[in-house]
Amino acid sequence: MKWLQFFTPAKSMDTAQTKAFLSTHPSEEATILDVRQPAEYERSHIPGAVLIPLPELSDRLGELDPDKPTLVYCAVGGRSRIAAQMLAGEDFKKVINVSGGIKSWESEIAVGPQDLGVELFSGKEEPAEVLKVAYSLEQGLREFYLTLGRQTTNKKVKNLFAKLAEIELNHQKSIFQAYLDISGEKNKISQEDFQAMVEVKSLEGGLSTEQYLELFSPDLEVETDVISLAMSIEAQALDLYQRVTLRIDNPDSRQIVQKIANEEKAHLESLGKLLDTLKGTD
């Protein structure tokens, strides 16, 4: 134990600085470390965060990459400050304490235990199998948006759901093209045939349609509520893909999931800008 670590403050960032940092670093280039307890993590966490409770940290340092920037957070910043100092004392190259913790986090958060949704991936998939699972998740979300679009009477909201469904359709086309590129089946299978062989899994992110509606209770007649719901789901999907990358052995498969995660991140940012625009007109 290097006692000096407790007297050497780690660098801190507020939530705005952390958000800016994450927006310029792909998910595979940094570690987001949550040092709270599992029940706290399950209620809400930053998408992609790895959970190692503070009492377990010293015994689980080997699970972390000391060469990657590590952003540490807790509820309000106390536990994460200690954890950041511990990591700095263990020669982690760049450790940042997220001051204010999850309570001051104004970005998107995900919910659920650390293994939520990852059962959809065994961790041993070849690239083609990863793409099939990803395609099924996108299909599930597209059908979810189409279903909700039929339930609302607000024309603007109907159009918004249609736009969200179209985005997921474009994601599916991108995934299908990647499947053709790696499988060499460009002249053997159509997208319709590919879709028929793909089982539609849980919604993106690992929760069912009913669970999402119960969890977020959106007003389906209000545009801002709908976008907030979409952002919550996309944050959940981003969280799932980022956690899955830690469990996949095949480097090509891992690279595919990382690419999908970065696309989800970009989609999430565009939804945030749209929400800012609508809130500015309230």
How are the SSEs placed, and which strands pair?
Blueprint: E1 11-13, H1 15-23, E2 31-34, H2 38-43, E3 50-51, H3 54-57, E4 70-73, H4 78-89, E5 95-98, H5 127-151, H6 155-183, H7 191-196, H8 209-216, H9 223-245, H10 251-279
Parallel strand pairs: 1-5, 2-3, 2-4, 4-5
Helix pairs in contact: 5-6, 5-10, 6-9, 9-10
What does this structure look like?
The chain folds into 2 domains: 3-104, 3-Layer(aba) Sandwich (Oxidized Rhodanese, domain 1); 118-279, Ferritin, CATH 1.20.1260.10. The chain has 10 helices and 5 strands. It has helices at residues 15-23, 38-43, 54-57, 78-89, 127-151, 155-183, 191-196, 209-216, 223-245, 251-279; strands at residues 11-13, 31-34, 50-51, 70-73, 95-98. Strands 1-5-4-2-3 form a 5-stranded parallel sheet. Helix 2 links the parallel strand 2 and strand 3 (50-51). Helix 5 (127-151) packs antiparallel against helix 6 (155-183) and helix 9 runs antiparallel to helix 10 (251-279). It is globular and about 55 Å long. The chain starts with 10 loop residues before the first strand and ends with a helix. Mean pLDDT is 83; it is low at 1-8. InterPro entries: Ferritin-like (IPR012347), Ferritin-like_SF (IPR009078), GlpE_sulfurtransferase (IPR050229), Rhodanese-like_dom (IPR001763), Rhodanese-like_dom_sf (IPR036873), Rr_diiron-bd_dom (IPR003251), Thiosulphate_STrfase_CS (IPR001307). Residues 26-110 form the Rhodanese domain. This is Sulfurtransferase.
